[in-house]
Design a protein that fits this description.
Number of strands: 7
Strand order of the largest sheet: 6-5-4-3-7
Helix content: 40-55%
Number of helices: 8
Strand content: 15-25%
Length: 227
């Protein structure tokens, strides 16, 4: 048993690697909410356990063993998120915090039962991919809503779950994974985007729109979200 703190570090490093490759110690510290010194000490411990490779002044990366543990924790987390939403009626802005508390403590049998009860899902409520039982994950890069040009259509596939308040706001606008959108106009110099969902138009700031991953679809017909 590695313990929840070690697992949190591995999960955090894995996610940072997906964004940046080799991860600076300062980024790890910020992700898990500790000082740089504390993060350095833990990274050295992970290296001693064979879960990470530490390159002084050049950052850290997970070994195959460390990545396997990280993906198992992420699988637990995302299955729990989906179960909370689909079976227990939690709103999508509350499932992340609840899953954080539970992800380290479920058994393999409980994991399998949740997976089966949900029909072996591949994505969580925010569109993040759920790693498979054997530790593989289809974590392909998605264009951002900010990558679209005026007149283009797309379907939302993924929304960042890092901010619960932001998720509540997007829910009010009906901007969920699976919803079709149409970019009517975008202001220059990282200005706002004018996005239609069905007959309703929303004005989204550039930073907010950048948290939404989309799949471009010429045939996508924007329709009101039914949630």
């Amino acid at each position: 048993m590695l313990g929840s703190v070690v697992e949190d570090y591995l999960k955090g490093i894995y996610k940072l690697q997906q964004e940046h490759g080799r991860v600076p110690t300062s980024a790890v510290a910020q992700r898990v909410g500790v000082t740089d010194a504390s993060a350095t000490n833990m990274i050295k411990r992970l290296a001693e356990l064979g879960l990470a490779r530490h390159h002084p002044y050049r950052g850290v990366e997970l070994t195959e063993a460390g990545e396997k543990v990280a993906l198992e924790v992420i699988r637990h987390h995302r299955l729990i998120e989906l179960y909370l939403k689909e079976a227990l009626g939690y709103p999508w802005d509350q499932v992340d915090a609840e899953a954080e508390r539970l992800e380290h403590h479920i058994s393999e049998e409980f994991e399998d039962r949740i997976d089966a009860a949900l029909g072996h899902p591949t994505v969580d409520p925010h569109g993040d991919p759920i790693p498979s039982k054997d530790g593989t994950v289809d974590d392909e890069y998605l264009p951002r809503l900010t990558d679209l040009q005026p007149g283009e259509r797309a379907v939302i596939r993924r929304v960042s779950d890092r901010d619960a308040e932001r998720l509540r706001y997007l829910a009010q606008l009906g901007l969920y994974p699976g919803v079709a959108v149409y970019l009517r106009e975008r202001a220059p110099f990282n200005g706002p985007l004018f996005v239609r969902v069905g007959d309703t138009e929303h004005v989204l700031g550039h930073d907010l729109a950048a948290t939404i991953g989309v799949e471009q679809r010429r045939d996508a017909e924007p329709a009101p979200a039914e949630r």
